[in-house]
Amino acid sequence: xxxxxRQTEQEMMKKWDETAKPYEHYCERSPYFHEFISxxxxxxxxxxxxxxxxxxxxxxxxxxxxxxxxxxxxxxxALDSVRDVVAERGIKGLTLKRLSFxxxxxxxxxxxxxxxxxxxxxxxxxxxxxxxKLTRYTKKRVCITIHVNHHDGILSGFKYRGSDSLEYEKxxxxxxxxxxxxxRVDYMDCMFDEIKGGWTFISWDV
Length: 206
Prior knowledge:
Helices cover 34% and strands 27% of the residues. The chain is α/β, with parallel strands linked by helices. The protein is globular, with a radius of gyration of 16 Å.
């Protein structure tokens, strides 16, 4: 597979800034949120780094539930939609930062958290590059999700190829093995962007 470079990422960032939807679009505490969190193993008092947090599907309700959450995304528009919700509701414990997967994270001030989440944001990124970066910032567990579908389609305004997404799942699994960890794989069957099913949930403990 050919993975995205910095130029392609910049193009994706521009498109995401044009198409990012507000937090309410994805419905609060959606079935996706509940299924993800139920598999994450998160416990009261745990801290979370939600990389690729988008419009806040995971980080907003977690912060509302009292978790300390660090959310990052490459789309300023998506982050602004989260900031609007935070200000409107007086949510505490949620820190937001503009950050891309291809940025140098060493000077980004990212804290090492109990859990690291990368939800629906990895496709097209080289697992051998991004999964070790995510792993460096967790004390306990990394959880990622990948949209896997045998058919071509569009997700959040972006085209994907079903065959490529299945290969990408395998590449992520093998990368975790190569890092010396034991990946656990589960499957989530829930709606997102009017697409049902096909979510692969991969997690590993450090």
